[in-house]
Amino acid sequence: MKIQNTSLYQEMQSMAAQAGRVQPQAKPPIQESAATSTAQFGDVLQNALNTVAGLQRDAKEKVTAVEMGDRSVSLAEAMIAKNKSSVAFEATVQVRNKLVEAYKDIMSMPV
Fold first, then answer.
1. Segment 34-58, tens digit of pLDDT
2. Of 16, 3, 7, whose CA–CA distance to 109 is shortest?
3. What's the CA gap between 7 and 33, in Å, rounded?
4. If pLDDT is split at 50, 70 and 90, which confidence band does 111 have?
5. pTM check: above 0.85
6. What is the CB neighbour count within 10 angstroms for residue 104?
7. How far apart are the C-alpha atoms of 50 and 18, rounded to whole Å?
8. Residues 30, 82: Cα–Cα separation, whole Å
9. Which end of the chain has fewer CB atoms surrounding its CB within 10 Å, N or C?
10. CA 109/CA 103 separation, integer angstroms
11. Beta strand segments in the chain, E
């Protein structure tokens, strides 16, 4: 995901100036970027969720194989896969919590 910090910052300053909260400073013209930043963020988020789901499926398959007595999968492999999926899921939950917190902060800002 490629985010252009300067153009984002300039756009935020422009919006604040329009809202009358900040006096506009001398700034270079805002570079128009394609409206794909939302799509790119969505794609990155979707890929991350698909990765977590894949790790969970893999862990479930390995645990089931160990429970059924499949000798091609060791208990250590199943435990590692289960822990990987657990860590990935917890990280996803933390990202979700941060996004919700950021959304609430933005929505509570006075206009």
1. 555 556 888 888 999 999 999 999 9
2. 16
3. 8
4. confident
5. no
6. 9
7. 40
8. 47
9. C
10. 10
11. none
Q: Do residues 63 and 78 lie in contact, with contact meaning Cβ atoms separated by under 8 Å? A: yes
Pull the structure tokens for residue 45: 């988020």
Other CB atoms within a 10 A radius of the CB of residue 33 amount to: 13
Q: How far apart are CA 86 and CA 80, in angstroms?
A: 10
Q: Is the dihedral of CA 23, 4, 31, 100 positive or negative?
A: negative
Helix (H) or strand (E) segment spanning residue 96: helix 75-107
Task: Determine whether 24 is exposed, middle or buried from the number of CB atoms within 10 Å of its CB (0-12, 13-18, 19+).
Answer: exposed
